[in-house]
Design goal:
With about 290 residues, the protein is mostly helical. Helices cover about 75% and strands about 0% of the residues.
Length: about 290
């Protein structure tokens, strides 16, 4: 019998749809520098035309400090409200079937598509003293339009989709078998939620909170109509920056923008660290 010779082994060549690592990395860095880093660097460079005392005076005046408190405080409250109620909306859309579900699911994205100025006018019309909702709130002593409460309402409106669309896919991918196993072992509804469901969706909730907060701090169009823009009362920081620009005080405007940028970056970094910690903790508990 003749010996059967083994066929030569061919090296498998890996075909890549996208270009190689170096070209992809170079394009990524170039795009990020062009879109993100260069504009942000320009903000910092414009502040170098001011002295340190001038910078401190520009960013710590009583009117600017009041706008900081309103902007970041209202953004924080709106983000917390969106985490609570946005999580409930996402839960209902994922876990229940009911007539008109697709319509409600589509309405969640309405703040994305609606122009912010239109949203501000609509909210002002609803919550003003003679509006459909405002007239009943005014009767019990609650004034929404042209107050800080109106700012919170507007920021909650524009931030809700970020939480819902972040939490919804996580709930869809969650393993319901774990909930059924917890129930079969005698766990109560609260124990199942706190030990099984909540750790799973916590990173997504933190991500939605970060996105809603970041969106709210820079919101302008929907807020200026319902806020009333009264100095020291309902004036947001983005509006104050626009006012500085209209007065040709570019250095003062960029100085305030730098403070907003640093505070927002610090809060987002903290939230991302909390998100990483929650994800790591959840993985360790599964092991």
């Amino acid at each position: 019998m003749s010996a059967v010779l083994p066929l030569p082994v061919r090296k498998q060549t890996i075909t890549r749809v996208l270009p190689g690592f170096r070209l992809s990395l170079g394009f990524t860095l170039f795009y990020l520098c062009l879109i993100v880093l260069i504009p942000l660097s320009a903000v910092f460079l414009n502040t170098f035309t001011m002295s340190w005392d001038g910078f401190v005076a520009a960013v710590t005046s009583p009117r600017v400090m009041a706008s900081y408190r309103l902007t970041f405080g209202a953004s924080l409250i709106a983000a917390v409200l969106n985490v609570i109620f946005g999580g409930i909306v996402a839960w209902v859309l994922v876990r229940y079937e009911f007539p008109g579900k697709k319509i409600i699911d589509a309405l969640v994205d309405l703040p994305f598509a609606l122009p912010t100025a239109v949203a501000g006018i609509a909210l002002t019309a609803l919550y003003s003293a003679n509006g459909w909702i405002g007239q009943y709130l005014e009767a019990i002593g609650i004034k929404v339009a042209f107050t800080p409460l109106g700012v919170v309402v507007a920021l909650t409106f524009i931030g809700l989709p970020f939480v819902v669309r972040t939490v919804q896919p996580v709930l869809e991918d969650a393993e319901r078998e774990l909930e059924e196993a917890a129930a079969s072992l005698g766990a109560s509804h609260w124990q199942t939620f706190s030990k099984v469901i909540f750790p799973t969706v916590l990173p997504a909730l933190l991500t939605g909170f970060a996105l809603a907060f970041a969106r709210a701090t820079g919101e302008y169009g929907s807020v200026i109509f319902i806020a009333g823009n009264m100095p020291m009362v309902s004036e947001i920081t983005p509006l104050f920056i626009v006012t500085k620009l209209e007065q040709y005080d570019y250095a003062g405007a960029t100085a305030i923008a730098v403070v907003m940028l640093l505070v927002s970056f610090a809060m987002l970094l903290t939230i991302n660290l909390l998100q990483a910690w929650a994800r790591k903790r959840g993985q360790s508990e599964k092991v």
